[in-house]
Write a structure and sequence with these properties.
About 15% of the residues lie in helices and about 45% in strands. By secondary structure, the chain is mainly beta. It has a single domain, classed as Beta Barrel (Thrombin, subunit H). The chain has a 6-stranded antiparallel barrel.
């Protein structure tokens, strides 16, 4: 009996619930039991953010965040760190998943990512 070889098809399009857009805006991250950490958002969707921080936060850490898109209103949210990786320059790439965000805040993010997607 010959061994079976599994082939994975990575050519399928990514299936995300919400559009994700590349941006660069400021973010304040306030981990529970830690001081506030400034971070820069790299991309955003209505379900979460990928940002770069100068400090490690720790996977599965719960954080409160405040996001400001294009100098607009502050969008507060609660998030959990779902991914963290040390980058070549010593900073940290952090994936945050929103666990609580007001519908108005989510709507603003959806409109913003849709605008970026439609204008390229």
């Amino acid at each position: 009996m010959h061994g079976r070889q599994t082939v994975y098809d990575n050519s399928l399009p990514e299936k995300r619930l919400f559009s994700r857009a590349s941006v660069e805006c400021e973010l304040s991250v306030n981990p529970v039991n830690m001081s506030m950490i400034p971070a820069t958002v790299i991309n955003i969707s209505a379900s979460g953010i990928y940002c770069v921080s100068s400090r490690s936060i720790g996977e599965l850490s719960r954080v409160n965040i405040v996001l400001r898109i294009n100098g607009g209103e502050e969008i507060p949210a609660r998030s959990v760190v779902i991914r963290e990786e040390e980058l070549a320059d010593g900073s940290y790439g952090v994936g945050l998943f929103f666990t609580r965000i007001a519908e108005e805040g989510r709507r603003i993010i959806i409109e913003y990512t849709s605008d970026i997607e439609s204008t390229g």
